[in-house]
Write a structure and sequence with these properties.
About 55% of the residues lie in helices and about 15% in strands. It is built from 28 helices and 23 strands. It has a six-stranded mixed barrel. Strands 14-16-21-18-20-19 form a six-stranded mixed barrel. It has a two-stranded antiparallel sheet with strand order 3-4. Strand 14 (about 580-595) and strand 15 (about 600) form a beta hairpin. Helix 12 crosses helix 23 and helix 25 (about 810-845) packs antiparallel against helix 26.
Amino acid sequence: MTVRSYLRFLRQETRGSLGRLLFFVACLAVGVAAVVAVAGIASGLESGVRREARRLLAADLAVEGREPLPESLDRALAELASELGEPLGRADLRELVTVVAAPAREAPDGSRRTGVAPGRSQLVELKVVRGPYPFYGELALLPDRPLAELLDRPAGDNGAAVGGAVAAPELLDRLGLEVGDRLKIGGVEVPITGAVTAEPDRLGGAFGFTAGPRLFLGAETFDETGLEATGSRIRYRALLRLPEAAGEAGTERAAAAIRSVLPEGRGFGIETWAEAQPALRQGIARAERFLGLVALLSLLIGGVGVGQTVRAWLAGRMDAIAVLKCLGARPREVLLLYGGQTALLGLAGSLAGAAAGVAILLGSPFLSSHLGGDLLPAELLDPWQPGAVARGLLLGVSVALLFGLPSLVGALRVPPARVLRRDVEPLPVAWPVRLAVAAAVLGGVGATAAAQSGSLRLGIEFTSGAAAATLALAGAAIAVSRGAARLRGRRHGRSATSAPGSFWLRHGLAALGRPGAGTLAAVVALGLGVLVVVALWLVERRLTAELVGNLPEAAPSVFLIDIQPDQWAPLRRLLEAEGAEAIDSVPVVMARIAAVDGVPVGELTDASSGRERVEDVGEDDRRWALTREQRLTYLDRLPEDNRVVAGELWSATGVAEVSVEEEFAADLGVGVGSTLGFDLQGVPLELRVTSLRRVDWSTFGINFFLVVEPGVLEAAPQYRIAAVRLPPGTEAAVQDRVTAAFPNVTVLQIREILDKVVAVIQALAGGIRFVGTFTVLAGAAILAGAVSAGAARRRREVALLKTLGTTRGGVVAVYSVEYALVGLVAGIIGSAGAVVLSWAVLTRGMEVAWAFDPLPLAAGVLGGAALAVVAGLAASVKALQSRPLEALRSAT
């Protein structure tokens, strides 16, 4: 077969098949659009992060840690400047979360307090700046003056007055202040000299989660506030600007030189502009991985429709295939002819889907914001991503060939004798071949899932889950179809006189059980879409309810941190005077793990250091557990929400003991009998693990990964934290009074923090649900295709119904009931599967109790029915226009 004859055959095969071609294209286009949109947003954000890397870091290189940067850094920077021949730019930052307040005011008339009342307070993110900040990007300030000028001490005050503060507008709004007013920060009142409206290194979206509004302060002013004390949670950062000639290679050399002089095991880290926000990029990669698999599911559902179309198409081409074989066409040429046409149609559908995906990114801000704008920092999005388009095209064509393969293999078994005898059916495909084809399809799905997620393990898990859900839905659909056929048979012998609407119901039940009605494919496809969307909706609503509406009655309402030991007694009296209940406080000692069972932490983390890991989450968890700053407490008795599950508490003699939370112990790789070496602010300490604990974190009580026996840490530098339950509605007032009396103490309101967490969860769920809707649309396209496949039969049926006196409205009602029943079955089965999936995710994956939630389930059932009616009627428009005369002509 020459290329010319091959192209001629392709052109001839597409004649008269416009409806089938459109359905084929629609099935693929929906899934490819989802794939391209997700991949485009992730790739666009990735390239945007890289493009704006220096701005997002505000420097070429940053050194940071949870303790003051060592003097060895100064020497290394001096040597580096000498080597480069130019001085380095340096800005030193300190970042912490604290509470600030408006100045005290006169108590209002009628208040139970007299005299001066504390001003309103607010949790803020404080950034202390020394030096030129930022080196890259724009810091938008009002008035438009350099930050250093706004933070300096006012001229002419002879150093007696503190410098200024620059606050975010939302902070001023919440406290009722304006530029020029004074703000209490720690133990001093600072004039507000400006407002900050934009920062280069402060991201938006869910990945830019913030504890509160921004506040800038100068280094000298911060030293006077008294906020830097034992236990203060301060992040120390040095931002560096290198000479322009350094480039990426020079930046990496500088980072290596600085890394060599930093103390090991102290938690110091280095980030360069070339690394381009590794934490943010990892978050983007994880979001893309999950959303990409949801998008792939919609493409695979479209593949079911593709397989259905190819099967119907080849069933109508058996005579042509027999003729080709009689003319000498070999099986591989037949496979090439029809496989090539499948590939070309797959390319057409993929191009249509890619165009729709690009349109989402480029031309529809509403859709783009729902998919990623609330979830990720949309200001970084570079919407044109050819790589995402190429991925969508490749996956689309691959899925078309993959799901068309069983029918293409069956077409090879058409015998040439069919030219002489039309009743000759294709020879059956041998079982080994069937098994090989099934394995190829399943393996292909796994390969596409692995490619989409970037993880072989996730690809296998996704394929297994999708196959199990498909089999369950198919089994349920078959059972419903057979049940409908039996019910129709029993109703058939009843009296024709029945309640209004009975005819419509009988017709719908008959359609469900009719052979070749396409019920199975439609129910499976639409049910999978409902399952995904409803399951994710159930998980989101349950998590939100757990965090917002179902706090335990005994849960604290505020946490107080950074309490100095000598402040606890007067602070407790203040809280008791405010009606506080269930006051709980424990000491905290900061330390770092130096060794595990005698092996230094540096050796344990060397294997994973410097590598970007997407798949091996367990290794990342262990590295985090080993290198994080540890918070230890000492207790003679465990809280009620702790339970020893291995070993015995304080059972050994002659050794210092520690009890470890069981999951944290698994991350560390330790068990009962292991030893943990700690660096206790320069003092070595070795503890033996004598018990493992299980902690009920849902109580929101004060709990620790590491609890040390009494008598070991009492003399160590420490601070206290407290958990308190306050009368409802008094949290803000108590925060104001605590801040006025103890300005270094930070008050964290549980409700306020949970509201922010819920906002992030809802942003994530919104993006996931948006992608999940593509699976539902793919299911609707399958149903529309099933209706179109029987277009000739439906035209005759409509003409016959009209001949018998049924009006067009009555015919529409008949078909609406039929499609609604299909949608109801899909919605019910999909919602039932969503209950099982959400239960497993919540109880097994998140350890959250499952609860019945009727709204998503009802929406899944009714929404499935409504969508099925719309899709079915849209595909039946031409059939509904049939005239009674056609029925009479066909009868003659």
